[in-house]
Amino acid sequence: MLTRGAGEPRSGAVRAWLYVVAALVVAMVAVGGATRLTGSGLSITEWRPVTGIVPPLSESDWAAEFAKYKDTPQYNILNQGMGLSAFKTLYGWEWGHRLLGRLIGLVFFLPLAVFWWQGRISRKLGLGLLGLGVLGGLQGAIGWIMVASGLQPGMTAVAPLKLALHLTTASLILAGLIWLAAGERGRALEPAPTRLRATAALLPVLVLVQIFLGGLVAGSHAGLVYNTWPTMDGALVPTADTLFAIRPWIENFVDNHALVQFDHRMTAYLVILVAILHAVDARLTGPAGAAGRAAGVAVLALAQAALGIATLLLAIPLWAALAHQVLAMAVLTMATVHARLSRGVGEAIGQPRPARAGLPIGFEGLAGRSA
User: Fold this and answer.
1) Distance between CA 353 and CA 348 in Å, rounded?
2) Residue ranges making up the domain that contains 275
3) Rounded to whole angstroms, how far apart are CA atoms 371 and 124?
4) Ramachandran quadrant class, 317 (left: phi over 0; alpha: psi -120 to 50; beta: rest)
5) Residues of the chain scoring pLDDT < 50
6) What are phi and psi for residue 189, nearest 5 degrees?
7) How many Å apart are CA 43 and CA 294, to the nearest integer?
8) Do 150 and 42 meet the contact criterion of CB atoms below 8 Å apart?
9) What is the C-alpha separation between 92 and 250, in angstroms, rounded?
10) How many domains are there within the chain?
11) Interior CA angle at 52 toward 103 and 143, to 5°?
12) Neighbours of 27 (CB within 10 A)
């Protein structure tokens, strides 16, 4: 049984594994975005977590799947007359998306079991990983609930709120993986000053809020209207009658294209403002590492805003929409790494880890016998 005593370097293999899983989550988000933008998400009408890994293999299998799709509102309202070849393209995107989700589960849980057995997973890290495993399982259920919402009578796409929740949960999983991986840094790192730590912790929260609002924009197709910047329909701030045209008023935050897009714009400005002010503050008062990371967050936030504006002005082409979604994951990743490292890592936090802390859950009693 391998254990890590006080002062031993943290496992580079564990850190690398976490980053690989994080990269797969980003790929999952990208494929999910392509699935949505190609209208493929409703092509598979059943949730079969185990048997669904096998695609249709014969013409009769394809005919049966196509017949199920023909019973959906999306086919009857939007895709009447679609041929089997076009359906296979739709099906391929959604099947690939679900297959990638299953692959992520394997890449997460199998190495986790190995590292746990080898004693490379500390109690704190183990609890965090188990929490992410539960969240990953919940994400699969949320994905099916989202798809089921688009199969209801009169629906041609999934419900915007459920799509936003699905995207945000994936982003939370990504942030959790990055947080844990950054905490496995081998070298000790002093904490940043209190104010910088607080602002650094705020940034990933703001980015997650912005991602949720972006999910609402995508789900409601709000990006296809008001394709101007910085104004919306000729005004920097639309009128209250435009922003709250729906009754009851609370539904405007999900169903009103003007308010959904306005919220997304305003939160983007807030993220950029906080990121730039934080970068300046870190440059003036923080250590070099924190200043560099803060500048990286600010640069990525500005790049993401510029790409978002271009995507809007071009009326949401597929390539720009996907790039915008992937760059959002990059902003979240950088902000999360910065927030975690700003807290300090290892013994620099001021709390040296005893030998028992390096043991996996359930093996603490071996501390006295570890090499």
Assistant:
1) 10
2) 191-343
3) 21
4) beta
5) 1-10, 348-371
6) -145, 130
7) 43
8) yes
9) 37
10) 2
11) 70
12) 15
Burial 221-236 (b: 16+ CB within 10 A, else e): ebbeebeeeeebeeee
Measured distance CA(223)–CA(313) in Å, rounded: 9
Q: 120 with 240, same domain? A: no
Specify whether the CB–CB gap between 35 and 92 falls below 8 A. no
Q: Which two tokens stand for residue 272?
A: 């950029």
3-state secondary structure 292-326: HHHHHHHHHHHHHHHHHHHHHHCCCCHHHHHHHHH
Cα(286)–Cα(292) distance, integer angstroms? 10
User: Tokens at residue 176, please?
Assistant: 């959790």
- Check whether residue 206 and residue 336 sit in a common domain: yes
Q: Is 189 strand, coil or helix?
A: strand
CA distance 333 to 344: 17
* Same domain flag for 331 and 369: no
Q: What's the pLDDT at 363? A: 40
**Pair of tokens at residue 291:** 């200043």
Q: Specify whether 8 is located in the same domain as 133.
A: yes
* 339 and 204 together in one domain: yes
- Are 288 and 299 found together in one domain? yes
Instruction: Please state, as a whole number, how many other Cβ atoms lie within 10 Å of the Cβ of residue 5.
Output: 15
Lookup: tokens for 123: 């109690």
The answer for residues whose C-beta is within 8 angstroms of residue 36's C-beta and 6 or more apart is: 158, 163, 218
Q: Using one digit for the tens of pLDDT, what is the confidence trace for 80-110?
A: 989 999 999 999 999 999 999 999 999 999 9
Q: What does R_g of the chain's alpha carbons equal in angstroms?
A: 23
Residue 147 and residue 34 share a domain: yes
